[in-house]
Amino acid sequence: MKGIETMQKALQYLESHLKKDISVKEAAREACLSPFQFQRTFHLLTGTTVMEYIRRRRLTLAALELKQGNTRVIDAAYRYGYESPESFTRAFRKQHGCPPRDIRLPERKVTVYNPLVIQVTIKGAEPMKFHIEEKEGFKAVGVKREISCLHGENLKKIPEMWVELNTDGTVEEIAAVNNGPVRGILGICEDRSDEKEGVIDYSIAAASVNEVPASMTSISIPKAVWAVFEVKGPMPQAMQEKWERIYSEWFPSSRYTQAPGPELEVYPEGNPYSNDYSSEIWIPVQK
Q1: For residue 202, which of 246, 247, 240, 161 has the smallest C-alpha distance?
Q2: Strand, helix or coil at 172?
Q3: How many CA atoms lie within 13 Å of 21's alpha carbon, on the beta-carbon side?
């Protein structure tokens, strides 16, 4: 349960800094994760992004202070991280349905977001098929892009990348060079947050021993111990649901933690929208 304990420490850090500057990197350190891993885990466990959670909590506290009638709007705006009363008013109206000055009216209600508490739900009714495998490093070739994770941008940009490369025929070109040790199209996520905060490299690629085509990039997958999870069902729902279960059920109850290195989604041939479609998630782990 150590992962849940460290995530709770990260939440306590966020809560204690709502009236101060908040560093996602520092919150990630409390969770013993990289900034990218922290933001991904947070979203999978809570259904919202870190920055959206911070925004909701700050606007909740600001509204409660204004409701008491002892705080000026401009003071609340600056106290909770807004650069101007105008930007504060826009965000406030979006959450509470009225401008800050009107929240004091008796008929106005505060939309409250309470502090999150991370808990483990013991399920066990549905088995999770996985195995641990040590694999030598290999080369993949494909298309790599730098993607920002700030404000959940990756949640939009990565699906858009898949649509684009499927539509223009690039995925078929990548599949044609797939003769390496892993069969299928790979979605490769490489965490770069140590060198550039809030950024990952995402690649759509295939394992290959061929020369790298001029239109593609070489991606090195290092030797690692992998937790390989079976994913059964149509895309993208089955993949999203399995990621959520891995972080909310498997990691908290297993003897493994996530190790540095790229994460892989493996998409073999077949109809990805079929209920019988089988794909995989590969996560580097350590005891």
Answers
A1: 161
A2: helix
A3: 3
CATH class of 2-104: mainly alpha
Domain boundaries along the sequence of the chain: 2-104, 130-286
- For residue 47, the one-letter residue type is G
User: What is the pLDDT at residue 196?
Assistant: 77
User: Nearest-5° angle of CA 94, CA 17, CA 91?
Assistant: 10
| Spatial separation of the C-alpha atoms in residues 154 and 198, rounded to whole Å | 10
159 phi/psi in degrees, rounded to 5: -60, -35
Q: Which residues contact 78 (CB under 8 A, 6 or more apart)?
A: none
Question: Where residue 181 falls among pLDDT bands split at 50, 70, 90?
Answer: very high
Q: Model-level pTM?
A: 0.77
Residue 133, Ramachandran bin (φ over 0: left; ψ between -120 and 50: alpha; else beta): beta
Return the CATH number of the domain spanning residue range 130-286: 3.20.80.10
Which residue, chain included where needed, has tokens 């040590």? 134
- State how far the Cα of 118 lies from the Cα of 70, in Å rounded to an integer: 33
Q: φ and ψ at 269, to 5 degrees? A: -60, 155
Tell me the one-letter amino acid at 241: E
